[in-house]
Amino acid sequence: MNDAALIDQLIALIGPQAVLRDAADLEPYLQEWRGNYRGTAGVVVRPGSTAEVAAVVKLCAGRGIGIVPQGGNTGMVGGAVAEAGQIILATDRLTAIRELDAEGDHITVEAGVVLAQVQAAAEAADRLFPLSLGAEGSCRIGGNLSTNAGGTAVLRYGSMRNLVLGLEVVLPDGRVWDGLRALRKDNTGYDLKQIFIGAEGTLGVITAAVLKLFPRPRSVAAALVAVPDPAAAVALFGRARAEAGGAVTGVELMPRLAIDFALRHVPGVIDPLAEPHPWYVLLELSSTAADAPLAQQLESILAHALEAGLVDDAVIAASEAQRRTFWHLREAIVEGQRHEGGSIKHDIAVPVARVPAFLERATAAVEAAIPGARVVPFGHLGDGNIHFNLNQPEGADRAAFMGRGAEINHRVHDIVAAMGGSISAEHGVGLLKRDEVAERKPAIEIELMRRIKQAIDPAGIMNPGKVVRA
């Protein structure tokens, strides 16, 4: 961007150190985490307050300049990349924890606070903020809100939509909507905050939020369970819910190949069982009662499942350290895949009972299309969210394999649609899935989305081109 007058105005609003233009300074903001997209914007602005965000947005609105909000830049769908002529509005200086009310079980944080810092602040107050995901050390709350982040605790606590009480948002004309209310019940009209959650910055810039806190678990028990197939995993989950109810807080499904990748490439990964098995479930129970007999309850669940032929082997964590090794194994799958060549990824959700059928049909479809493709489906079985990924055949050409991504996506997504599922469960839409979402959603849903976009952002300056075409 060579508009010297605009640069001067931005500097006047937020200071020279907060307006980045040098190539080395821009680089961290331009490259998408997966490497599938690279932005070409020539300016990054880093406002340090809501007032400064509002001033920047108002200036850009007056000049018709596109604004791309960006948090930790850990997104996977191209939602935070900006083209030449647009500016990136980074929230990485909006890092204040404005209030923590332990008795009221809520915390008010600015959009640039890193998720792990929110977790730590809650822990220091003997509370829990339950959102947990692999990028929690670098992703920021604004991005979590804008993508309606899910993670490993959705089964018990819900996604980000369920964890928010109030928002502060800078609207596309530069006005500020102060909806930072800590109310648990408010029946006075539309729930406006939900319009902005999951909108990926296309309707405004989230600058702060009131988030729910919860009592910290005092007792936790986890097991790494070998199961013969995904159908047994679903049945095990059903038995666990029947016997332990709301104490079931984590149910993660993993194939053996994913574990092999993690063992091969990620330090500190341990194979907990003596023999390999085709499928595994990481099953976790938790309770706020310090003396809850969760280990015994978990042992009972597994014993009954073993009798029913649902379990081949299992190990219950004997210590917190061992429990962490189970989760390290689960979290290492993504990193392990990165070392095995090209990977075509899907973030899908189907009703939990249909997960086994989906896996069977989708695996057959992709293996027929690409013989030798290594299918690595894993994820949050408890809410039906499976990361159905496939790595290139050993020795295959990476570029040729990745070039078939769109074809494979459509094959997999056709199966998802036939099962009443979603082609984006927790990663968002961005650029990657925008056009396919428009094709697959009912026309009336796309029409309503466009009407909302046009009503709130008639000039189309907020994250142009993402989520839904104007």
Automatic annotation (TrEMBL):
Keywords: FAD, Flavoprotein, Oxidoreductase. Residues 37-216 form the FAD-binding PCMH-type domain. InterPro entries: FAD-bd_oxidored_4_C, FAD-bd_PCMH, FAD-bd_PCMH-like_sf, FAD-bd_PCMH_sub1, FAD-bd_PCMH_sub2, FAD-linked_Oxase-like_C, FAD-oxidored/transferase_4, Oxid_FAD_bind_N. It comes from the Bacteria. GO terms for molecular function: D-lactate dehydrogenase (cytochrome) activity. Its EC number is 1.1.2.4. PANTHER family: BLL6224 PROTEIN, D-2-HYDROXYGLUTARATE DEHYDROGENASE, MITOCHONDRIAL. Belongs to the FAD-binding oxidoreductase/transferase type 4 family. This is D-lactate dehydrogenase (Cytochrome). It comes from Inquilinus ginsengisoli.
